[in-house]
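Notebook entry, structure prediction.
Reason for the run: the old model in the group folder had no record of what sequence produced it. Starting over properly, with the input documented here first.
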Amino acid sequence: MTKFASVILVIVTTFAAFEANTTPISENWTSPRGSYDVHATGVDRFVLERDKNNSGKPIAKFTVSPGDVFQKSTGERSEVVLGGWESSSRFRVKGNDEIEFYRVSIKLSPDWIAPQSNSHGYAWGIFFQLHGPNEYMAPPAIAIHAENKFSLFVLGGDLNAKVGGRRFLTKSDLNIGRWVDFVLEIKWAPDTTGAIAVYRRNEGESDWEKVADIKAVATLQHKGTPIPNSHYWKSGFYRSESKHENTLWLGPILRGRTFDEVAGQ
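New structure, fully documented this time:
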């Protein structure tokens, strides 16, 4: 596999929108800031920049400070809804029994400190998440966390059963101050016919390493009848209330039909 200098998450899904176009869908952080659906408390919490150490590629800087509670929501956050809320959004997930790949690259600030755990023992620390229908008022179906290590969270299937939880990666160190690439390979399903694999590559490495391979897991949420409604992706940083500041950078986020389509960009 090709090497990459960022953290990449690849999720795989055969998606109807890709049938006529093999070019991966991308959020490359080049649109005007005002065009993004930002969930943050100040303009300095989401900043579009250029990576000086990587040919000036566009990147997004997310900062969360104590008290950054957006519109009375729980926790503190600086996030972007990828593609917006519309049902036609290029990052909406609607299908099942299909496979997709997603890639995300992350760099944590050199002074990184893990978010503090709340009274229930959760720090969250989410930088990439698949959010279920808002009416469910549930944790994400899939999320990648950065706390004192990287981890994967999965809570798909029937939310009445609440089957899911944290799944640690075989290589979970943060590589603070340097890029880490993740690729998520996901088979979409509202039941245990789904699957997730995660691949990782650190800055300066050329080979991808599989750090999770989860079989027989639901990857979409529902309540009762196993017919999933539309899900949507968010990126940035969401954490429990903490007494320090967290800053991270995300590179372009890609959605495609094959591993090579997203990992080779």
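Summary: The CA atoms of residues 81 and 234 lie 5 Å apart.
The old model has been moved to the deprecated folder.
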